[in-house]
Structures are given as C-alpha cells and as structure tokens.
Amino acid sequence: xxxxxxxxxxxxxxxxxxxxxxxxxxxxxxxxxxxxxxxxxxxxxxxxxxxxxxxxxxxxxxxxxxxxxxxxxxxxxxxxxxxxxxxxxxxxxxxxxxxxxxxxxxxxxxxxxxxxxxxxxxxxxxxxxxxxxxxxxxxxxxxxxxxxxxxxxxxxxxxxxxxxxxxxxxxxxxxxxxxxxxxxxxxxxxxxxxxxxxxxxxxxxxxxxxxxxxxxxxxxxxxxxxxxxxxxxxxxxxxxxxxxxxxxxxxxxxxxxxxxxxxxxxxxxxxxxxxxxxxxxxxxxxxxxxxxxxxxxxxxxxxxxxxxxxxxxxxxxxxxxxxxxxxxxxxxxxxxxxxxxxxxxxxxxxxxxxxxxxxxxxxxxxxxxxxxxxxxxxxxxxxxxxxxxxxxxxxxxxxxxxxxxxx
Length: 407
Ligand SMILES: Cc1ncc(COP(=O)(O)O)c(C=O)c1O
Prior knowledge:
The protein is α/β, with parallel strands linked by helices. It contains twelve helices and 20 strands. The protein starts with 5 loop residues before the first strand and ends in an 8-residue tail after the last helix.
C-alpha cells in the first residue's frame, strides 16, 4: 500500500500550496540518473558526445543540469540556439538541425558559431554560395523511420526530413563546388522508439552513407530513445542496443581509417520521466455514460494525449488507496477533445483532489500554448529536499505583452 506520493521529499499538496496549481514539477535526480545510464551504455566508445535535444524541455535550468552532466545540445530553431547560449552552453557544443532554414537563420547560426546541420540539398547549395570554404554537418533520411505516432516519424518517404540517402553523390558535388567540408553526418528517425531493430536498421544505412563522405569528424545517430509510458510497457534495453550499435560503429571506424566521434541526441529519454504535471480537480460530474473529473489544466498545458492519443499515467495523490472507479479526466479548455484520460480506473476522485500526470517532462511545457487565453503554468525543479521555482506562472498582463492597442 502506497502511503504517500512524493517527488523528492515533497508531497503534491506541499508543492501546490507553495507554488499554486497547475504546476510542472521536475525531479533533477531522475534527469541525472538517465543521463548517467545512457553514458554508461556507450562507455566502450572512446570518442563520444551526448547532445540533449532541448526541444523536449528547454527550460534554462534543465539545460544547465544536462550541461553540468557533460551534454552538448541539439537545437532545431534559432530560439533554442539563443536559449542554450543564455544557459551558458558553448557554441561549439551546439548542433543546429534546422528545418526549411531561411538565409537569416543560416546567418544567425554562422554568426553565433554553432554547428549547422543541413537537411536539404537546396539549403546546402544556398549555404555553400554564402559561406564557401567552411564546414557543415548534413542530415540524411535513411528511409527507415519509427515512433509512437505517425506525426513523429522522421525517416522514410512520408517524412519531410533529411537528404535522401541515395542523394549522397549530390552532397559531394555541392561540397566540391563550394569547398564546403562535410564534417558530420546525422540522422534522426523518429521519437519514442522502443524497437531495437528499427534503430539498428537505420544505423546500417547511415554508416553506409558515411563511407561515401571522406572528411567526417563525427556521426550523429539522432535521438528517439523511447520510455515506458504505460504500466507494464517494456523499457528499452540500452546496454544490449548500444552494444550492437557500438560494434557496428567500431567496425565502421576501422574500415574508414579514422576514429570519428560517436554522437547521439536524445530528448525524451533524458527528461520525460522526470516531469509531473500537478493539477487540481475542481468539478466532478456524471452523465449516463461517464463520470468526469474536471481539472484546472488542459491540452493548453499538456497536448500529448489530445494530439497523439498518448497515454500518461495519472495518480490521484489525494486518495492513493481508496476504492477504484472508472473516471474520465478532462481539462478546462473549451473543446471536447480536452481529455487527459478516458475511462481510467483510479481511486475515487473528489473535488479538491490533486492529480499527478506522470512522464510529463518531455514535450509538455515546450508544446504548451495560450489557447483560450490561459496563462502558462509555473515550473519547479526538485532536488531531494530542495525545491526552486524555475519559471514563474504567466500573468494576464504577459498574455497581452505583444498586443498593440488601437485608439
Ligand atoms: C533533430 C532531432 N533530434 C533529436 C530529437 C529528440 O527526439 P527524442 O525526444 O525522441 O529523443 C528530435 C525530436 O523529434 C529531433 O527533431
């Protein structure tokens, strides 16, 4: 029987009383533990770098925790470059994997001295014209993809990402034309992948493409490492997976004749399980088919259930061991799709109860919005018996900060 639900030393009630509701809470220990597990799983590889894909959670204080552990950063937009630089990450530790990059974005990346990762031949051409005699990384689409939902599969012909692996000769032509050295090759095939074989197939294709590029300093195998969201879901066996990946990589280096660096760039794996969205139930009601528990949060704060149909475990922290019943947990947004969980079996929920939505550390706050003109929640970081506010709750005034009022 579970006595109390705690994050570090704190109950959900203590956190809500101190910081208000709803509230994002992150457990620093979980983030550090995941980083160390991952590092250990690739310990046999000498030259390696773990980048944190900060699109998963770009709070500066989270970035700082991972930087402290030794991570570089994978970023996908200029705002993420800016955020990482503000967090004190050195420009040489930032890989900017752009998307439909504008010239201004290319200029910004070059000005800040971050490593550019280019995923289209036309952008590579445009980059070469502007910045000849430099070096970049290229993103390959290895024709292998995976992930928890088709929106997040980023390999294969259905995906907009990367330069198709069959186009490596075209990369070489542009590289020669402008003397742009291809110093890195990259792939990222999707998100929340729990199938080892999907990773291994993509690794094979990337390594074949890498053999065709003569000047590589590093190979980035991307992110996508899955985490278990549903009870009983199997964890990825990182040690086994990375044993195989490392063996392939070492063979490659031998044949290539150079010890290139091994890079990976997970996001979700490092932060997903560290996060909780605490939300208070303020309305309980029933109709002939369902009992609803209405909360003070919604898909404006955690969109994954609505957008992807994702499962998040939910704990009624105010009633851990009572009788169970089926309940549909919904948000306060004016849309019927604003459901965190449909017909979930949980200990009876009463108004005033605090629910913890688990595994909300990745793609939670970073995908949140002001829909319904509701402010974003606060974020706090727990470290054992210490807790600190790492982002204030948004105010009504801040909701209108860019508004230009007419006369
Ligand atoms: C380029 C790139 N790298 C890494 C990641 C991180 O993915 P994940 O959080 O699944 O590890 C993403 C996310 O989709 C991405 O777009």
